[in-house]
Amino acid sequence: MINKVVFLLLSELFLLLVQLMLGSLGWPLPLALMGVFYFTLAYGRSWGIAGAMIVGMVLAVLYGGSWNLLHIAVDPLLVCYLDWWISRHDESVTADFWQPGAVAAVAGALPALAAMIELWQSSGSLPGSWYMLLLDLAWSATISSGIFMLILLLGEAFGEYLGLPRFLNRKVRK
Hints:
Number of domains: 1
Strand content: under 5%
């Protein structure tokens, strides 16, 4: 239990740090949310929701603004959806499972999309760079789907090293 808590906190803080460093370079990759999705796969819904709440609160505090509070509400809902989806398709899920990365990218762009819609409604016209936002979203979804496979494999390797249960072992037990 202690190993899982330490692994969750350290891995999420590390992924948040890398996400913030890449974000300052203009690469919108939701690495922390992908880490939360891995914890949902490997350890279940309660661990995923705990990680989602931690990540959502940190992002809301760091980025500020009312739209970043969406992370606190939406990330746990995405964890519940992923857990429901896994319970229905568990036998067909393999290590090349890329969909959560794309979902994380779309969820990571929700505050930016919501701010764009608010600006559109208040000013009556779309901002000039709306197509750049959509291109960033498409790029992030594509790259994130590949990166999630890497996070899944790294999580399995660290889980094996720390003696924790792994996602692929969880599939075999059912």
